[in-house]
Each structure stands twice: as structure tokens, then as C-alpha cells.
Write a structure and sequence with these properties.
- The complex is a heterotrimer of chains A (about 325), B (about 270) and C (about 300).
- Chain A has 16 helices and 12 strands.
- With about 325 residues, chain A is of the alpha/beta class.
- Chain A folds into 2 domains: about 170 residues, 3-Layer(aba) Sandwich (D-Maltodextrin-Binding Protein, domain 2); about 140 residues, 3-Layer(aba) Sandwich (D-Maltodextrin-Binding Protein, domain 2), CATH 3.40.190.
- In chain A, strand 1, helix 3 and strand 2 form a beta-alpha-beta unit.
- Chain A is globular.
- In chain A, about 50% of the residues are buried.
- Helices cover about 40% and strands about 20% of the residues of chain B.
- In chain B, helix 1 packs across helix 7, helix 4 packs across helix 5 and helix 5 crosses helix 6.
- Helices cover about 80% and strands about 0% of the residues of chain C.
- The N terminus of chain C is likely disordered.
- Chain C has 13 helices and no strands.
- The longest helix of chain C has about 40 residues.
- Chain C folds into 2 domains: about 35 residues; about 240 residues, Orthogonal Bundle (MetI-like fold), CATH 1.10.3720.
- With about 300 residues, chain C is an all-alpha fold.
- The chains are: A alpha/beta (about 325), B alpha/beta (about 270), C mainly alpha (about 300).
- Chains in contact: A-C, B-C.
- Chains A and C meet through helix 1, strand 2 and helix 9 of A and helix 4 and helix 12 of C.
């Protein structure tokens, strides 16, 4: 009798979403996109239902981009991945062969329906007077940023700082390494994902400056009105968070059509408007114009300046890379 | 009076049997507990296994019950000519009274005594009325009428001892085995129970083996005394045979006799016993 | 026999034997109390305060959210599967350890303790290594369409692993102290193995067993690390209460996070009360057994 109750409960849990919807797909995403996709999903499901008559449930999983990538490699059945940077999808292709190597050419704009960049968040009144990257290496400034090993945003942070240092020192690699080394010696704690760092900076009130996704910076201002200021540095990096259908998974589950439609939906004016509203920089010209006031003009380097993600990852973030060599745990 | 009447009815219900033990060896790790022991026990005998602690006497008793098994395959044991070597304790159903009684503390006296019926397969289980009758009869025999509802923790040591007796006898075992049955009781109760056991045996002639380290107890109660030391039987005989003719220096020493002044020691011993 | 019991009761009163001065005692008790207040009691108060920070209506609103409801249901389901299984495993393990002597016995005892020594995160990773897509059984499992990691079965496995020692650990000392004379007595009275287990052993250990089950259940419902690794964090599918609390907290829904946390906190308090009661009864169980087995 108990067994029957247990099985029934288990079936209820296992079938919870499928009971509500004809089909379910899983979007495995990075940390700060929680709010964005909860709105995108609603819009897409509505459109899909009116077009096909089928109800669709989109399940979400969020975490540090690198960690999420690893989970998909280990078997998390993502129909689509929407991660912080291309390398994390490359890794799924390289290590698990779940999608072809040329995945990034399958959708427009390097498969990135929006861009973003890295900005600084400081406490109200900017008490430490932080204006640009070189202020972050000063003594007594505490910098909050997540761990580049597990977080996508953290890798963009690191590369933006590195690009700034190269520019300042006329391309001197040694000086650039010294610069980021100095910067990371001011980091008291490395969270695994961007959202963790946000909480560290806002709720736990640690640090003087938070290196943040632009969208996350605006979200902080919304959550804590009047408590934080956004500082745009002189130079930053063009972040292109890419999206991809995971071929092996959709083919096995028979969800290719809806998964493909879901990603294409991200490029539509409707979705681009949602994207802009959530402080991501839209690709669509109309949406970009509509929200342009929110996005300061910053000079942006791109990942191509680092020779692409595979090269940058290998050089800087893999075991034994530059980050491992320059990072010494913070000592107050 | 009631005790006698109860016991005599038990007599009628019992068959007699004999036990044959051949070439038993048992080790615990490297320590030999029994070395090539053979022993015949006759119908209706009351036997004491006597020896110092660690001599192997309790191991021998547990072996008879089926709670221990011999090491070598050539050791055999039979009840009434029936080979029971490979039967486990629950198939042999020897009545066993444990040193500290091992009553079931979560069951009342009635359920303790009825236990051996409760575990029978349904086809063999007597009706509840028959069980009740048997339990009442046993309680009368051990003078504990009216104690059915008590829990073991609510009884004195001597009362627990008697419940343990009644429980062991309930399903009419072919043999009654007692491990230091009086060891945990105070002197007065012990004396009473000794006498009771002797009388009970005289009435029922149920083959009974008890283990003791107390020679007074062995000599007062038993028909035959088996002296055990270091896993071997040193001597077996009636109390007077053993006392008058100790087989070796161990027996003489253990009984407090020395070979030189045996008669004197014997008198002393008798004085102590009686 | 009365002598035997009184010896045991005397053994239970060693309280005044240490000879510490009054000042030392006051200091120790005071330090313990301060520690208890600072690190256990106040955080619990904060949780309940946070839960109601936006009022009772907001508190109730949290539990109307389907994701929250699902996380509670999933937590209950995982506990409902892993606790009974661990109860059976625990009894079997305690039985083996206390009833038989065999080669490798001490190794088995070490194995029972293993989940207490291993970090739960490592335990989760072990399951990923074994059942993950790149793991030993990964290809075979995919071929047969069996999902373990990032699905409920994996979370159940991880929970079973982490909560395995509690029942066995609770029973082993009790069963060792009780000995097996009563089981032997039942054997000579004609009871077979199952009858002994049901009629003698289980009634003897029932409070100790309950104590173990309560601890096991508390841990099963509260487990974060191991379950987090194998969950995949799919909302509405593989989030248990602790994981859901983290998500709510990370989404600035602090009142909701604390509201769900307060349910776990409440569970902890109920557990504590039940545990204390079971512990007390288990003590009595042990004491009762000393009537029949003490020398």
C-alpha cells in the first residue's frame, strides 16, 4: 500500500510538467538570465500555442556558465543552451559531441541574439572614487568578481581588464599580466557564478566595486533603488552570449522543431524588445534605438582580439593558464 | 501441593529419550573450547556439567541445543537415535533456560510462555484455548498463577527464573538444558529452586542437563556429574563415584581433595555440602 | 537479580565524579549557552523573522507558487523513498555487524561510516562519474533511455548515500549492548529468522530504530550538497526545498526564501522534539535489556 502511494507520488513528480503541457524543453542557461528567460518563455509559449495549438513548457536551469556546460556534458538533457560565452558551448561539442563544431554559424550574429558588456557597480556616492580599471589595482580597494574557472561573466571581466592593461602598456604582455595579478589580489572572495557575486556585493555588503554584467548592474539598481551607481570604464569588452540547439538531445527527444523555433524567436522584434527591457543590448535596430539611452557608448574590444574563445580559454583559463599563475588568494 | 499435581501432569505428557554425542571439536579462533568430546546421556537422567569458567561446559550445552556447531564434520549428535547434527536450534527445540533467563521484556508472562506456540506454522498451532490451558498449567506448576499480565521487569529474580522454566517447557521439549540456572540468585532462593528442580525431575523424569561451576549444586541435584576442563571430559560418574575415586589430579584439585588425604577431604566436602 | 540492576543504575550516575570547581563548571555551561544562543538560536529566529518580513499574506503567497509546491513535494518524495530503503539497509547492516563475526567486519563498519567522512559534494560527484553521460555507465544508460543523473533517481541515490549511516549508527551500539540472548532463546523455542526479527529484535530496538529514522529523515530533507551536484537545478522538476531556497535567495526573493527555509526550520524543531523523545525511550529500552543480559 505504501509502495503504491510512493509510486504515485513519484509519477506525479516526474510527470508534473508533461501533464500541463504537450511538450517540454529544457533551456540550460547562465546565471543572470533568470528574469530575462522567465519573460521570454511566457511570450514564446503564448506565440507557439496560437501558431500550432500545442502547449509548450520551457524548463529552466541556471548556474555559472562553465558549471552548466559541464552538467550538459555529464548528461543534463538540455534541448537548448544559452550560455555566457561561446567556449562553454564549444566544450559541449568537443567533450560530448552533442552538437557539431560549427554550431556558432547556424544562427545570425554568431548565434548571439544580444550582446552585453562589463561595467562597474559601486556603492552610492562612489566613496572610493572609482572611474576606470586602473583604480581597481589601488591598495585598499576591494573588488568583487566571480571565479573565471566556473563563471562566464568572470571570464569577460578578466579579459576586459587584460585588454585595458594591454592598451595602456602598448601591448606589453608582461605588464598586462602584472596588472591583472594586482587586480585579483584585491578580490576577497571568488563566487562560482555571477549571481553569487551580486549577492556577496549587495546582501553581504562586501567589496567596494563589483565587476558586473551590464544587465545585472541595472537589475541591482532596480532591486536596491538609490543605493548603487553604475560606472562605465573607458574600455570594455563586447560580450556575445551565444545560444544553440543541442542536436543529439533534440533528436532523441523529438523536440528539434520547437527548440529551433525557440531560439529563432529570440531574434524577433518581440523578443528583442524583452531583451532590451532586461538591459541586454539588442541586435534588432529598432529595439536598440528604443533602449539606447540605457547603454553608454564604451569602446569595446572583442574576443577576436584574443584570437577567439578556444585560444583565449587555453591561454588564460585552462589549468596551468595565465589565471592560475597570476592568482594568489587574497590576503587582507 | 499444587506444584506436585502440576508436575505430575507434565510427566504424563513427556516422552523420554537419549542423547549421543560423538567426537565433538570446537574452536573459537585459536582457543579450543571442546576437544574431541563424546558423551552419552540416558533417558530421564539429570546431569550436571561441572567445571571452572572457560572449561567448555557451556559450549557443550549450547552445542546440544544447536546454538553452536562443531568444527569438524565427523562430530555427530543424535537425539533418541535420530541424527540432529545438521539441524539448527529452532528445529531441535531443546528447552533451554539461559543464565540470565533472556525473557522477552516487551511481552508479558503469558506471551513469553506461549511464544513457542505462536511461532508454529498455522497448521500445527493449537487453538488459543489449548494454549491458554497449557500456560495456566505451567504457571501453576511454577507457582506463578495470576502473574500472566506482568512484564518480566516487574518480577523478582526467582520469579523470572521460574517463568524461564515454564517457557522452556511449554512445547514439551525432549530435553531440558539449563545454563547456570541458579547463578544469579541469592543463597536462599537458590536453595529452594535447587530442591524444586530435583523434585520436578523426580516427577517428570525429563532428561535434564545443567551447567554449573558450583560443585555443591552439582552434587546435591544431579544423578551424574560430568567434570570438564580445558575442553575435555575429565571424569563422568555419580556423585559418590566421582568423590570417592577422582580420576586425576584436576578432579581432585577442583573438588578440594588431594590424592594423599582424600578421605579427610571427602568428609570435609560432605560436611560442606550437606 | 536486584543486585544486577542496581549496579547498572549506579553506572549511570557519574555526574559528580569530575571534581571540577564551581567556577569552571559555571564557565563551561555559560560558554556552551552563549554558543548555543549565538550560533543556533538566533539564526533560527532570523529565519522566522525573515519569513514574515513582508507579512503573513506574502508568507502564504510563497506556498502558492507552483515551483515552491513542487520543491516541497519532491523533497517529500525523495525522503519517502530513501528513508524506508535506508531503514532496511540500516537494520541489515546493524544485524550483520552485531550478530556475525566474519573476515572484513571492521572494514564493513568503516564502510557504513564512509558517508560521514566524505563531503556530500564529493558523493554527488561520484555519482556523476559513475552514471553521468561521460561516466562508466553513461553510454549504456543513454542507450536504454534511463535517466539517473540530473533527474529524480540520481537525487534519491545521492540522498540514500548521504543518509545511509544514521539508522545503522543508531542501532549498532544498542544491539551490541542488548546482546542476542533473547534471539537465541526464541531460536530454541522454534522461531525462524524472520519470526525472530519481527517478534523479538524489532520490538526490542524500536525506539532506537525510530531515533535513527528521524535523524535519517531530517538529513534526507535538508541535504543540499550531494543533491545539488546531481540535480541539474531544473525548476519545477529537480529542485528540492534546500535547492529552491538557494534559487529564491539568488533571485532577490528573500522573504520567500526565508519562508521556505522556515518550513525546513520547523521540521528541524519537530525532529528535535521527536528525537529527544525517541532517545529517551531508547535509553529505557537499553535499561530494560540490562535486566535480562547484565552479568
Amino acid at each position: 500500500m505504501n509502495k503504491i502511494i510512493q509510486l504515485a507520488a513519484l509519477a506525479a513528480v516526474a510527470g508534473a510538467t508533461s501533464l500541463q503541457a504537450n511538450q517540454a524543453i529544457l533551456n540550460v542557461s547562465y546565471d543572470p538570465t533568470r528574469e530575462l528567460y522567465s519573460e521570454v518563455n511566457k511570450a514564446f509559449a503564448k506565440g507557439w500555442a496560437s501558431k500550432t495549438g500545442q502547449s509548450i513548457a520551457i524548463d529552466q536551469s541556471h548556474g555559472g556558465s562553465g558549471k552548466q556546460s559541464r552538467s550538459v556534458v555529464d548528461g543534463l538533457e538540455a534541448d537548448v543552451v544559452t550560455l555566457a560565452l561561446a567556449y562553454d558551448i564549444d566544450a559541449i561539442s568537443d567533450q560530448a559531441g552533442l552538437l557539431p563544431k560549427d554550431w556558432q554559424s547556424r544562427l545570425p550574429d554568431n548565434s548571439s541574439p544580444y550582446t552585453s558588456t562589463i561595467v562597474f557597480v559601486v556603492r552610492k556616492g562612489n566613496p572610493k572614487g572609482i572611474k576606470d580599471w586602473n583604480d581597481l589595482t589601488k591598495d585598499g580597494v576591494k573588488v568583487i568578481t566571480p571565479n573565471p574557472k566556473t563563471s562566464g561573466g568572470a571570464r569577460w571581466n578578466y579579459l576586459a581588464a587584460y585588454a585595458y592593461a594591454l592598451r595602456q602598456n602598448g601591448g606589453d604582455v608582461q605588464k598586462a599580466k602584472e596588472f591583472v595579478s594586482k587586480l585579483y589580489s584585491n578580490v576577497p572572495v571568488l563566487d562560482t557564478g555571477a549571481r553569487g557575486s551580486t549577492i556577496t556585493f549587495t546582501e553581504r555588503r562586501m567589496g567596494d566595486v563589483f565587476l558586473s554584467w551590464e544587465n545585472e548592474a541595472h537589475l541591482i539598481q532596480k532591486q536596491y533603488p538609490g543605493q548603487y551607481e553604475i560606472i562605465a570604464p573607458s574600455l570594455s569588452i563586447l560580450a556575445e552570449p551565444p545560444v544553440a540547439v543541442v542536436d543529439k538531445v533534440v533528436d532523441r527527444k523529438g523536440t528539434r522543431e520547437v527548440a529551433q523555433a525557440y531560439l529563432e524567436f529570440l531574434y524577433t522584434p518581440e523578443a528583442q524588445d524583452i531583451i532590451g527591457r532586461h538591459y541586454y543590448r539588442p541586435r534588432d535596430a529598432a529595439a536598440a534605438a528604443k533602449y539606447s539611452a540605457k547603454f553608454p557608448k564604451i569602446e569595446l574590444v572583442t574576443i577576436e582580439d584574443f584570437g577567439g574563445w578556444r585560444k583565449a580559454q587555453k591561454e588564460h583559463f585552462n589549468d596551468g593558464g595565465v589565471f592560475d599563475r597570476i592568482y594568489k588568494p587574497y590576503r587582507p | 501441593m499444587a506444584r506436585r499435581a502440576g508436575a505430575s501432569r507434565l510427566l504424563i505428557l513427556n516422552r523420554t529419550m537419549s542423547i549421543a554425542i560423538q567426537n565433538i571439536t570446537k574452536r573459537f579462533g585459536l582457543h579450543p573450547a571442546l576437544r574431541d568430546v563424546s558423551l552419552d546421556i540416558h533417558d530421564g537422567e539429570l546431569i550436571a556439567l561441572l567445571g571452572p569458567s572457560g572449561s567448555g561446559k557451556t559450549t557443550l550445552l549450547r552445542f546440544i541445543a544447536g546454538l553452536e556447531f562443531a568444527d569438524a564434520r565427523d562430530g555427530r549428535i543424535s537425539f533418541q537415535g535420530r541424527d540432529v547434527t545438521d539441524l539448527s536450534a529452532y528445529q531441535r527445540k531443546a528447552g533451554f533456560v539461559f543464565q540470565h533467563y533472556a525473557l522477552f521484556n516487551h511481552m508479558n508472562v503469558y506471551e513469553n510462555i506461549a511464544f513457542s506456540f505462536r511461532v508454529l506454522p498455522r497448521s500445527k498451532r493449537p487453538p488459543e484455548s489449548a494454549i491458554r490451558e497449557r500456560v495456566t498449567e505451567l504457571l501453576r506448576a511454577v507457582q506463578l498463577e495470576g502473574y500472566e499480565k506482568r512484564l518480566p521487569t516487574q518480577l523478582s529474580g526467582g520469579q523470572r527464573q521460574r517463568v524461564a522454566f515454564a517457557r522452556a517447557l511449554a512445547n514439551r521439549p525432549e530435553v531440558l538444558l539449563l545454563d547456570e540456572p541458579f547463578g544469579a540468585l541469592d543463597a536462599k532462593v537458590r536453595k529452594d529452586l535447587r530442591r524444586w528442580l530435583r523434585e520436578f525431575h523426580d516427577l517428570t523424569r525429563l532428561t535434564t542437563i545443567f551447567v554449573t561451576h558450583d560443585q555443591d549444586e552439582a552434587f546435591e541435584v544431579a544423578d551424574r556429574v560430568v567434570l570438564i576442563d580445558q575442553g575435555t571430559i575429565q571424569q563422568s560418574g555419580t556423585p559418590s563415584e566421582v568423590r570417592n575415586n577422582p580420576a586425576n589430579s584436576f578432579v581432585a584439585d577442583f573438588l578440594g581433595l588431594t590424592e594423599n588425604d582424600a578421605p579427610a577431604a571427602r568428609t570435609e566436602c560432605q560436611l560442606k555440602t550437606r | 537479580m536486584p543486585g544486577a540492576t542496581s549496579i547498572h543504575i549506579n553506572n549511570r550516575q557519574p555526574l559528580r565524579a569530575t571534581g571540577d570547581s564551581l567556577a569552571v563548571r559555571a564557565l563551561l555551561i555559560g560558554a556552551t549557552l552563549v554558543f548555543f544562543l549565538l550560533f543556533l538560536f538566533f539564526p533560527l529566529v532570523v529565519v522566522f523573522e525573515g519569513a514574515f518580513s513582508k507579512g503573513g499574506a506574502a508568507f502564504l503567497e510563497t506556498f502558492r507558487d507552483p515551483y515552491t509546491r513542487h520543491s516541497i513535494l519532491l523533497t517529500l518524495v525523495i525522503a519517502a523513498i530513501s528513508v524506508p530503503l535506508n531503514t532496511v539497509f540500516g537494520i541489515a547492516a546493524a544485524w550483520c555487524v552485531t550478530r556475525y563475526k566474519f573476515r572484513g567486519l571492521s572494514f564493513l563498519i568503516t564502510l557504513i561510516d564512509l558517508p560521514l567522512w566524505v563531503s556530500p559534494v564529493i558523493a554527488g560527484l561520484l555519482y556523476v562519474l559513475v552514471f553521468g553521460a561521460q561516466g562508466w555507465f553513461g553510454p549504456w544508460l543513454r542507450e536504454h533511455e534511463i535517466r539517473i543523473i540530473f533527474a529524480v533517481p540520481g537525487m534519491v541515490l545521492a540522498t540514500i548515500f548521504v543518509t545511509f549511516p544514521f539508522v545503522a549508527r543508531g542501532l549498532i551500539p544498542l544491539m551490541q549492548a542488548q546482546g542476542m540472548k533473547e534471539e537465541e532463546a526464541a531460536l530454541t523455542l522454534g522461531a525462524n529468522g524472520w519470526q525472530i526479527l519481527w517478534r523479538i529484535t524489532l520490538p526490542k530496538i524500536k525506539w532506537g530504530l525510530l531515533y535513527g529514522i528521524i535523524l535519517c529523515n531530517a538529513r534526507a530533507m535538508g541535504e543540499f550538497g550531494a543533491v545539488s551536484v546531481v540535480s541539474g537545478h531544473i525548476r519545477g522538476k529537480t529542485n528540492t526545498m534546500p535547492l529552491h531556497i538557494e534559487i529564491l535567495y539568488n533571485e532577490y526573493q528573500f522573504a520567500s526564501a526565508f519562508a521556505v527555509a522556515s518550513v525546513l526550520g520547523l521540521l528541524a524543531i519537530i525532529t528535535l522534539i521527536l528525537k529527544t523523545r525517541a532517545e529517551w525511550r531508547a535509553e529505557q529500552e537499553l535499561r530494560a535489556s540490562s535486566f535480562s543480559t547484565a552479568p
